[in-house]
Write a structure and sequence with these properties.
With 505 residues, the chain is α/β, with parallel strands linked by helices. It folds into three domains: 70 residues; 249 residues, Type I PLP-dependent aspartate aminotransferase-like (Major domain) (Aspartate Aminotransferase, domain 2, 3-Layer(aba) Sandwich), CATH 3.40.640.10; 124 residues, Aspartate Aminotransferase, domain 1, CATH 3.90.1150.170. Helix 7 packs across helix 13. The chain is globular and about 90 Å long. The relative contact order is 0.13. The mean pLDDT is 96. The chain binds pyridoxal-5'-phosphate. The site of pyridoxal-5'-phosphate (PLP) has 15 residues, from helix 7.
Amino acid sequence: MEDQEAQTRRRQNAPLAMAPEEFRQAGHELVNQIADFLAGLEQKPVTTGEQPPAVRAALGNNSLPAEGSAASGILAEAAQLLFHHSLFNGHPRFWGYITSSATPIGALGDLLAAAVNPNVAAFALSPVATEIEQQTIRWIAEFINYPVSCGGLFVSGGNMANFVGFLAARKAKAAWDIRKDGLQSRNSRLLVYCSRNTHTWIQKAADLFGLGTDAIRWIEPNEEQQLDLSLLEQQIADDRAAGFTPFLVVGSAGTVGTGTVDSLSGIAGICRKNNLWFHVDGAYGAPAAGLPECAALFEGLAEVDSVALDPHKWFYSPLEAGCALVRDPKLLQEAFSFHPDYYNFDGTGDEPPVNYYDYGMQNSRGFRALKVWLGFKQAGRNGYIQMIRDDISLSQKLFSLIQATPELEAVSQNLSITTFRYVPQGMANHPDENYLNKLNEALLNHLQVAGEVFVSNAVISGKYCLRACIVNFRTQWQDLEALVAIAIREGRRLDAQLRQDSTNS
Ligand SMILES: *Cc1c(COP(=O)(O)O)cnc(C)c1O
């Protein structure tokens, strides 16, 4: 038999164990590399634009190593791979989709969270982490002027946060025990209402949670691109008359394409009258509700039944951090809780603890709240207001510059999203829409791999547009002036090339 000492030695040298000095050294080296990376970020291209084979070649095609290697070497290797083959959404010239520059303190927070590794499923497994999560939820509610008595939790992102609101609504508004009897037990179909501009999560939700995508009533937006209130009311009435069961209206507080905020107080009134759940998808825009100058735009938000928002967007947290808020915490719990007899999490004190497995889809949960909590403590409410305000005013200034620039057409500006397109000289008065769409798509495809700037696209009333969404505390005005100059330079070049191609063909 193996003697006890040999076994002890083996466990102390377990392949994944790190002696304190080794950890300290590897960690310090890594932090130094990250500090240099962040300091040099703006000198790098936004993306290498490499295609999959090139990235795969850099990674190497080795099979699983049979034997391990020393931590500091492989960490340095991983850092080099990431620093040289990534798209940097922390770059001052990244404005694609809705991905923010991530806070450096959030990166350190994730390291700390992983090191202590609380399982924020149950209070007993994560005492202080559970309390920090609750405090962060309250601070988010406070920031956007939503009742702090709400329930809520962190999830991986906006899709999941919206799913939480959807499921809370389904449970609360179905007149039968839907969690036990399921959807099949009733032949009156549950229906959800939203504008055409709603993010694609709604299709996933209708599909995944058994309603089917035909249960979505797409309401055409009005001229301001907002959910049209009279069409909404009419559709609900028609569906009721036809024997359907409307249960949920989804409003957008910042649509993903153009940043439009629906009339929240208008929709809230219709929901109240019809006894429907009102969920707001604020994944992108809800943080702007914390700015005094945006109060009118978000009027009605405090009344809604649930809100989804995404700290990894406009609270600048590193991925992943989504957050769902439900006005009545009881209704959140009722949508998700089960109490298996192998759980012993009720506590023995006077006040029952919060066990987050009872409030959402996950069981074991990481400590996502920490990086967000640290950001709030570092910047404070006023720091956040300043950063969000700067993003919005830079976006407005960009729109004005584009309006004043002959070869560019400014198309829309809401919150911190500006859309525009390149229109060759002489074409503004007789636009060939097909050609312009083709040209602007080519322009976008070029910009997304060239690495000078990064924008994404939106199709607005049939116009293929470039779209800059500024959720980036590193962006400065000269970065946006550069975007305008680059769009014109590349627009001209591609226009000449496309005309040449069509002459040759
Ligand atoms: C980003 C976004 C989502 C999805 O959020 P993820 O974090 O990507 O899951 C949903 N709705 C809107 C309005 C968004 O902007």
